[in-house]
Amino acid sequence: MAGGGDSFRALLRAANALLQQRRYHAALAVIKGFRNGAVYGAKIRAPHALVMTFLFKSGSLREKLKSIAQATYAHSRNLAYFVFTYKGLMAAQSRLQGKKIPFHSFFAACIGGWLVFGDNNPINSQIIMYLVSRILFGLARLAVEKGYIPQPKQDPFPLVAALVWGTVLWLFEYHRETLQPSLQSSMTYLYEDSEVWHDLSDFLIYNKRTDSK
């Protein structure tokens, strides 16, 4: 047993020494990026899938748990693959050109986005829509910072909030098919299911009656 413990400690020391080698830093960063992508994807998707599945999906407990596991795995896998691809391409470009330039980031992310997130499925669609909203805010702030548009004299957020909510509810009421399915489900729960009830049970306690009365 002692020999096995000594071997393990020696292996651990060798691994730690390898991790300190600067010449392997780029390759090791790619590997850790893969790890962090997988962990972060699982942390983000699992709670979301749990809530959305039990709120809006029907089926047995087994089916719901399987759906949660599949969604979590897909998000975790895709984010891990994307980070791995992005950091690998960044390291390759930097090595080839001898330095890091802004275009490297854009190019590497475009390739990763095409390869990993190019499939139009519910998980990828949600991720892309999440990013689009952040990009629009970021580009607006950058435009102000660079002087392309003047600094607003008043906070524009109330106007943005009004336009966003006005547009999304108009789409929901009159062009519902254009909205993402999970958003349709959320809005149906909020704005349509609240129009229907039969007695106190499905007015305050449940959203919908489960009996045949």
From TrEMBL:
<dbReference type="GO" id="GO:0005778">
    <property type="term" value="C:peroxisomal membrane"/>
</dbReference>
<dbReference type="Pfam" id="PF02466">
    <property type="entry name" value="Tim17"/>
</dbReference>
<protein>
    <submittedName>
        <fullName>PXMP4 protein</fullName>
    </submittedName>
</protein>
<dbReference type="InterPro" id="IPR019531">
    <property type="entry name" value="Pmp4"/>
</dbReference>
